[in-house]
Every structure is written in structure tokens, then in C-alpha cells.
# Entry
Amino acid sequence: MIERKQTVFVVDDDEAVRDSLALLIASVGLEAETFASALEFLDAYHPDRSGCLVLDIRLPGMSGIELQKRLGEMGSILPIIFITGHGDVPMAVKAMRSGAVDFLQKPFEDQELLDRIQQSLAMDASHRRELVERHQLAERFAALTPREREVMELVAAGLANKNVAGRLGISQRTVEIHRARVMEKMNASSLAHLVRMVIAAGA
Amino acid sequence: MAGKSTASRGSLYPLRNAVLFTGAYLVLSFFYFWLSGAFAARLARSVGELRRLELVEELGFVVLTSLLLFAFSWKYLGHIADDIAECQRIEEHLRQREELFELEFENAPLAIVTCDLKGRVSSANRAACHLLGFANGELAGLRLTDLTHPDDRPRSLEMIARLARGEVTRYTEKRRYLRRDGSVAHGMLHAAVVHGTEGESRMLVVQVEDHTARLEAEQEADQLRERLAHVGRLSTLGEMAAGIAHEINQPLTAITIYARACQRMIRAGKTAEPQLVEALDKVSAQAKRAGEVIRRLRSLIRKHDSHRESVDVNELVSDVVQLAETESRLRGVGLRVELEEPSVAVVADGVQIQQVVLNLLRNGMEAMEGSEGAGDLVLRTAVRRESEVEVAVTDRGTGVSEELEEQLFHPFVTTKDSGMGIGLSICRSIVESHGGKLWFTRNLDGGTTFRFTLPTAIGAAHD
# Structure
């Protein structure tokens, strides 16, 4: 799932603006998909698709702000860059408060938009990577037996095998076996790696 | 004797009597003298030969004839005196009538000119002189055609010739004249030919109603309306500035982005020529689009001389709808347009009609703003009859309250925070000046419909 193709989704009711944005995005080798309305985008939306959303703040029917809200409710993590016309600053501020990456006022510099897009794509990628890792971590944790989990937590807390054995009332040999199973199941390359994973899971 | 025959024979009657009388008198007096002569000769020849009785007979004859002659003379002299008195009475009567006629002719409010069959003025009344800017009496001898406005001259010549030839006996039409000072007089002309006793054309009588003042007043009213309409348009467009800026900004944004994308593709050296050409085509299309917005805007802003021409209703309406669409988006009001096909032409001042449509659309949007999901604002055109087309704007707004209804079309009445409140009153005056009507009805399912009608080009031609 990691590092899949990323798409820049463009939602603007003005055909020319939409089309020109698609051309600009394509000119730097990125994939673009365009939509004329918020509903059209929602129809095509899939949470697994990585990328970012370039969204006109004023749209007929469902507005850009409403689409942002709807996506939030659906648990979307897609970064949103708003495009605004004249006099839409208050709306843009509201959008930013709701978690938009940025807003650009028309007419804007192409470089500025492309920079924002690149940032957003990187952000989305790392966000998704993180999500995947967290998901994998959860799976690995779930694979551990209760005893193994106890051993792991104590090891990660910095206790030596001997102390772990004493604390749990089992032999040191048994602790070593459990520890090796934990390292294997958690796919940990070192003790430090395991500690990081335990901290991440606990966070 | 009846007054009419007295008048017509009055001048001849006493003369004939006088001739008759004189003739009879000459004949009778010839006989008298001849008889008296014969009698005297006989008397002188044979005084003694005659018997007394014969003398008495002959004397008696002379006395009798003298008496007869006297009585005859007395009777006919009386007749002649009567006839002379009658004649004088008739002459006086005629003189009075002529004076009265002259007074009436001179002082008639209508300009009256008589002229010969070639259109040369033989007499003109005061109103005619006034209409044409001449002093009394100066018109006589001038040609009517020379006094006519150059544009109307050919028509004037043609109609005078037709009158003279007897093809028409009378006609009425609009005519412009040139005053002596060069200004233009507008009139309604009534011309007729006068026939002689033999039925031949004798002269022309031309009457002209002076419409100059009325036309000038109408023109002044038109100018005033045009000025007011212009102010109204400016104020409307001022209120629409944000939307219009957006409408121009869109293509400019697209142009900028297209251009930048092209630059990038060229610089990266990874572009095919067709792709670039296509992008450049799009750039020019967008430049044209921005230009279109400005063209529409300029025609509305420009202070123009009101002129009417044949224009397609649907085209007229579509043009202004595009200006209104941006605003409808900004206000979050759906706009639906239903144009009846085929469209018809109206003879109108296009800009003013667009102003009316724009005003009605904006009023509708304002009424609907904030009432989400109520439906669309609908603009319809419909040909009602061959002679009439209707434009209707139906909103799903808050409606018109009873108390506002009465004042709705009054100037400076407004329910809005911005605006002067002259919109609807200007609209109505514009529509009425085009020969149409503007009114509103409440929809059964809420909201209001404003409609106006215009005579179609066909309908206007029939008027």
C-alpha cells in the first residue's frame, strides 16, 4: 500500500480554470483529476486514494467549505488547498481553522500552487505511511500472547531478563524464549526499535 | 323666394327685369307716339268733319293707353326698386359671409394653405405662416414642396402629382417641414383636391396639424427616461461589481495558468506541438471570454442615444443572463432559463430591455437569498400571440407584502439596504415606452412572478 500513485483532485465549477489547472499539474508530471462540483467529487471519492484536493471555495450547490466538512465527517485525511476569489478571505480563514492546508487567492502564482501541492502530497504520503505503520503495529501487537506482551512491556521499560523473570515468577530461560518470539513477531531489528514501537503504540 | 336661389340668381334677376321693362316701354311708347301722332294729324286735317262721339272715343283711347302705360310703368318700376334692394341685401350678405370666412380662415388654429395643382401657394392662413416661420402673407407664390423637409420632399412631390392627376382625392400623413430659420416642424398633413363645376381638379387645400410641440415634449420625456435608466444601470452594475470582477477574474486566472503550464512544458522540453497549440487556443478563447464580459458591461454602462432596432428576444435575454449567472452563484441561488424556440424579434432599445431583465433577475435573487432548497429562479420567454412576447421571472422568495404592493412601482421605495429603489419604476417606464406592460402576480406555491410583455416586430408593424 505504501507509495502508491498520488492524484491531485481539482474541484472548480469554472471549466477553463479546471482545465488549465489540470494542464499545469500535468506539466510537472503529476496526475490530475477534475470535477465540476462537490457532489461529483464525492461520487468518485475513495478514502484509500492518496493525493490532495485543490478546491474552489465557492461552488454552486455544495460549497467548498461544506465539502471540507463532509470529508472531515467521513474521516478523510486528504489535504485541502482552497482557491478563493475576491473578498472571500473570511471564508478562507474559516476553512483554515477547519484544517485546510492553505488558501490561494486568484489569480495566483503557479509556483506557489505547485509548491503547496507538492507539500500536500508529501504530507498525505507520510500521513498514510504513518497510518499504515500504526495499523501494522496494531496487528503485530494483536499477534502476541498475553505472556509475551507482559515480557515485552517489561523489557521495553528497561528491565533485564533476570529481573523480568523475577517479576513474572518464571525462569530466565523462558523469558529469553518469549523475548525472542516478541522480537520476531514485532519484526523488531533491535531493542531500541522495539522500544520505539511500544512508545508509538502507547501514544 | 328661397334664400339660396335668391343668392345664386340675385345678380341677374333685376337686370333681366330691367331689360324686359325697357323693351316693353319702348314698344308701348312707340305705339303711343304713333297713335297720338295719327290722332293729332287727323284732328288737324278734319276738325270739323268728325263727329263729337268719334272725338271722345279717340280721346278716350289716348287717355286709356296713357293710364295703362302709367300703371305698367308704376308696377315695373316698383319691381325694379325691389330687385335693387334685394340685390343690395344679397351683396351685403355675401360680403358678411366672406368676411366671416376670411376671419375663420385667418384665425383657424389649423394651418391651412390653398395652392394650385402644381403646389404653388395661393393663400395661407396665420397658423400656416406661424408653423413655417414666415410673416403673414409671405407664403403666397412659394412652392409647398420647397417648404417641406428634404427627406420628405420626394414623397410630397409624388402625392401632389397624384392629387392633381385625380388618382387620389385626399390623403393624410406625417410630414416634416423646414422653417425659415432652418428648424424642423412636425405635422400631420391632410390634403384634398377641390373640384370645379365640371368635375375637373381646380385647386388643392392643405391642412397641417402642428405636432412639433408634442413631439418635442415626447423627446424630452424620452431623454429624461434614458438619463434615469442610465443612472439605474450604473447603480445596478455598481452593486454587481463583486460578481463582475469575479467573472473577469476567472478567464484571467485560466489564461495565467495555461501560459505558465505552457512555459513549463517548453522548458522541460517534453511537449508535443499539438498540445501547445491546443493550450494556446484555449488561452485565446479565455481572452475572448473576458472581452465578452467587458463588452456586455460596456454596452450597459455606456450612455447611449436611445435607438430602436429589431432584436432577437432570446439573444437579448441570454446575453444578460450570463452577467446575472455569476451573481446567482455568489448568492447561492439556482438560475434556470427556459427560452421558447423559435424566438421572435422585437423592435426595442436592446440595452434598456436588458436592464429590465437584469433588474428583475436581481430582485428575484435577493428575494430568494438565504432560503435554501426552495428551488430555482426561473426566467422564461414565451410568445403569447403573433404580436406579443412575454418575459417572466419567477422566484421562490418571500413574496410581496400587501402594504408594499401599492408602492412597489413608486420611485425611491425600497426594502433593501443598498440601492435607490428606482429599479422597478424605471423598468415599468421602459417597458411602457416600448408599448408593453409590466406587472407581477403571486405564485400559488409561494414567491412572486414578474412579467412584462413587448410587442413583436410583426405586432409593431401592424400598429
Notes: Residues 7 and 30 of chain A are 7 Å apart (CA to CA). Residues 144-202 of chain A form a domain with the Arc Repressor Mutant, subunit A fold (CATH 1.10.10.10).
